Amino acid sequence: RPLNTFPVIFVAYRAGKMYKVKIVMVGPCQSGKTMIANFLADATENIGGEYRPTAGVRILEFESGNLSVNNKNIKAEVELWDSSGSNQFEPCWPAIQRDAHGVIFVFNPESAAQAKQLETFHQAFVRGPTVSENSCVVFAHFLSLSRERRGAKLPTTFSRIPQLEVNLEEEGNRLRTDFQTFLATVIAGLSHNRDQEEINIINSR
Q1: What are the beta bridge partners of residue 61?
Q2: From CA 92, how far away is CA 88, in angstroms rounded?
Q3: In what helix (H) or strand (E) does residue 107 lie, and over which residues does it extend?
Q4: Which single residue of 16, 43, 57, 140 could bond 38 by disulfide (Cβ 3.0 to 4.6 Å)?
Q5: CA dihedral sign, ordered 162, 63, 89, 99
Q6: What is the pLDDT of residues 123-182, one digit of tens each?
């Protein structure tokens, strides 16, 4: 069967036992999305620094290995789209969301306003057949070193999406593990969809 009968994502998988995955990271301004994106992509050694708002979107490309999917260890080529939280870039959101396989929501749980704003991003990015709530995760990014982890509660819209606490200063290794687990979940969903497409093609003959 010609490879071009399947989406490009699966051509990469068949050729090199590797998936190419597009993950979009969204959330309010000053929630620390860029800090997390840089950390996951090993794009910086300095977690802190002066705040610089993202203009539109930044795309970071990196490889993530040792992902356990269907009892197999695989690698993934990741495109991580670090999206601006500013409303002025809202017209760009449909283009950013296009062909995404998963969404990471980021907010500072010490801000009730950010928790409320996150619902707007859910409405914009969790839609259509590509991204379902099964392919989403929330990173509650504590920017202070306070031991009190009593952050603001999210709207009920997020009740079916995993919510994980993040603190880069103290728990960076856990964040990497949580991200790999999330990637594995997304890829497992892609694998299931691929198998279903193959069955549909066979049955349509």
Answers
A1: 79
A2: 9
A3: strand 102-107
A4: 43
A5: negative
A6: 999 865 568 898 999 999 988 766 566 677 898 999 999 999 988 888 888 999 999 999
